[in-house]
Design brief:
By secondary structure, this protein is an alpha/beta fold. Strands 3-4-2-5-1-6-7-8 form an eight-stranded mixed β-sheet, sandwiched between helices. It contains 14 helices and eight strands. The model has no long low-confidence stretch (mean pLDDT 91). Helix 2 crosses helix 14. The chain binds adenosine-5'-diphosphate and magnesium ion.
Length: 293
């Protein structure tokens, strides 16, 4: 990881001003990514909403499914999520269709969000007694249901646990997206996550794979951040995006204004890095399809 100088940063900004807003390539097929890591505070929600917003701003249609009862993704996208609002909870228990619970975010007309309300907190227990309890989200996410939204990308923002909600997310998706915080305990718990993914592969969703890892909250002032970065890249190779998300105050402030960093401070490094990461994902998506045909 090379250092980031103020001059390099300014040059980068200038380049972007000169070549603005090129659209990202669409995938041939809808990509559904589950943003998972049972550790809390590693940047799942932040990554889901900012990547989604970046893609939406570059012409892709994106749906964020908030599957965490805390509703942080809904907050960041400026979407109503008071108790009683039609949400992912009603969709899981079959009361409304997911499409009817989806609302357009004021961040972009291409960006939809299915909010999570506190009602979801009881779902983990309620679901246990229901039939097809692991496949409820998958059933809610079918083409017919999503026909009027037609998203290119779906990001499912998981709660910080490996419970039934996360299992539902892994069954509903083809890809797992894992954010890893550049901190000392970054890799702790990762093998447990990978074990769970394997269990889901073996029993519920054969096609599931870890397609993308994103390093978040990188602090260039610490040696540790570089060590963690190197270690994660050594373990996971090309699954790890080249772009690393820096620790940035702007990124953490944005949700307080019901915004992503992409609208809160579009010129900030955090916004640019999320834009770069989103571009990488979109380009990989386009390439994936080309080679698999
Ligand atoms: P998770 O969804 O995994 O629990 P969050 O995305 O909510 O994690 O992030 C945890 C906290 O860290 C939040 O307060 C968020 O604003 C902050 N945060 C996330 N990414 C960054 C970043 N790149 N720089 C600074 N703060 C960040
Ligand atoms: Mg979260």
């Amino acid at each position: 990881m090379t250092g980031w100088t103020p001059i390099a940063e300014e040059a980068e900004r200038a380049t972007r001003v000169l070549h603005p807003d090129e659209p990202f390539p669409k995938p041939n097929r809808r990509r559904v990514l589950t943003v998972a890591n049972q550790k809390g505070g590693v940047g799942k929600t932040t990554s889901a909403v900012n990547l989604a917003a970046a893609m939406a701003m570059r012409g892709l249609k994106v749906l964020v499914v908030d599957l965490d009862p805390q509703g942080n993704a809904s907050t960041a996208l400026g979407v109503e999520h008071r108790s009683g609002t039609p949400s992912v909870y009603e969709a899981l228990i079959g009361e409304v269709s997911l499409a009817d619970a989806a609302v357009v975010s004021d961040q972009s007309e291409n960006l939809y969000c299915v909010p999570a309300t506190i009602d979801l907190a009881g779902a983990e227990i309620e679901l246990v007694a229901m039939t097809a309890r692991e496949t409820r989200l998958k059933e809610a996410l079918t083409d017919q249901v999503l026909d009027n939204i037609r998203p290119d990308y779906v990001f499912i923002d998981c709660p910080p646990s490996l419970g039934l909600l996360t299992v539902n997310a892994m069954v509903a998706a083809e890809e797992v997206f894992i954010p890893i915080q550049c901190e000392y305990y970054a890799l702790e718990g990762l093998s447990q996550l990978l074990n769970n993914i394997e269990l889901v592969q073996n029993h519920l969703n054969q096609g599931l794979w870890v397609s993308t890892i994103l390093l978040t909250m990188y602090d260039g002032r610490t040696k540790l951040a570089d060590q963690v970065t190197a270690e994660v890249r050594r373990h996971f190779g090309d699954t790890v995006l080249k772009t690393v998300i820096p620790r940035s105050v702007k990124v953490s402030e944005a949700p307080g204004f019901g915004q992503t960093v992409l609208t809160y401070d579009p010129g900030s490094r955090g916004a640019m890095c999320y834009l770069d990461a989103a571009r990488e994902i979109a380009e990989r998506g386009a390439a994936q399809e080309a080679t698999s045909e």
